[in-house]
Amino acid sequence: MLLSLVTRVWPKVRTPNAHLYFSKRFVSLKPLQILGNSIPTDETTNVTPTILSKIHLRLHSQPSHPLGVLRSLIESHYPDFSHFSSVSPLVSPYQNFDELSFPPDHPSRSPTDNYYLNKGLMLRTHTSAHEVEMFRQGETKWLLTADVYRRDEIDASHYPIFHQVEGARIFDANASGMKEVEEDNKRLSKFLARSNIVIEDVPHLSSTNPAQPSHDPQLVKLVSLNLKLSLNSLMFKLFGGSATSPSSPLRVRWIEAYFPFTSPSFEVEVFFQGKWLEILGSGVIQQATLDAAGVSNKIGWAFGLGLERIAMVLFSIPDIRLFWSTDERFLSQFKKGEITTFRPYSKYPPCIKDISFWIPQNGRFHEGDLYDLVRDTAGDLVEDVKMIDQFTHPTTGRTSMCYRINYRSMDRSLTNEEVNRVNEQVASQLSSQFDVEIR
């Protein structure tokens, strides 16, 4: 179900945006050509050319790419699960939200957070959008790896396209299913007892993390334990190499969480390289999801994890943009089935430019507009974008904002003249598309 990067795994509740908006840059667009389909557009359309140009790349399907290597490692831990990795990213808002019990007014539906192709079609924001589909077609234990899309800030750990693995398993909600869960719990417990791992757990159920009204609490406890044992063993597979002696075990801790589509819900953290890392979100699947899939007599768990988050740590990759590099100095360092440490081949100097502007008083500018525009204009030449100043004029009431754009290529040196041209294009496009007044 399926970013810190745990919220890039399963979306948490966010503070609602002050307004919804539609930029004039997306008005009167021609039909979009995506994966062989012609998609009509409307006033909701806000997907950008940069995003459209990368939909077909599917980095997780490249065996020697770090994301492909990690995906294969996770799949090998679940050999008896069905594995999916070629599911189209085009989903309806109903699939992405309603089938997973997101309230109609949930802020995560906003166009400031998502890429809409039109009012009835969007790019999935999490792999959880396919849960009902998987269960409906009869899958009872499965992994689904896919690219997901969210309008996001620009820095070394955020990118508007990233990759997730969704895992789920369901059991019959009867005595037979309970026996299956108990047997699997015994198997996993024996494995973990032999492993150099220390687990800080939380109760399977609590007043703040309850069972769903329609569920038997005892069965929920068994299913929650099965979820935890399964993921503890996965954490040991991924990070256990750091547990070099009995005196330095792998440390894993569980934390109560909230997601609209699970209850009880949990997050998992791993102590790795001297700090706690948020790894994934998980929980017992909402019964409404199973009911929508036509498997009301089942109970089960699901989890979602972000591949980039884990790959950046395991492969020592310092900048998320590198995953999209086609430079052989990057790609040649990785091989199928191997986790290797990335060796930086260069560190080119930054070229920093500031851009200041008055935002329009019609309220139609959102920070996400700037991020998308910078990506469309400068591509991956931008390392990060940060707001460094904001003030409101006491007399006119107009608001001014100043952003610092750090231009730095991963593959070559940039000249000041080249960056000036690009930055001037950014300013020009901001003015023409969003009615801002450049200062």
Automatic annotation (TrEMBL):
Alphabetized UniProt keyword annotations: Aminoacyl-tRNA synthetase, ATP-binding, Ligase, Mitochondrion, Nucleotide-binding, Protein biosynthesis, Transit peptide
Reaction it catalyzes: tRNA(Phe) + L-phenylalanine + ATP = L-phenylalanyl-tRNA(Phe) + AMP + diphosphate + H(+)
Pfam families in alphabetical order: FDX-ACB, tRNA-synt_2d
Residue span(s) of domain FDX-ACB: 346-439
Record bears the keyword Mitochondrion: yes
A GO term from the CC aspect: mitochondrial matrix
Task of the protein: Is responsible for the charging of tRNA(Phe) with phenylalanine in mitochondrial translation.
Protein name listed in UniProt: Phenylalanine--tRNA ligase, mitochondrial
Organism of derivation: Laccaria amethystina LaAM-08-1
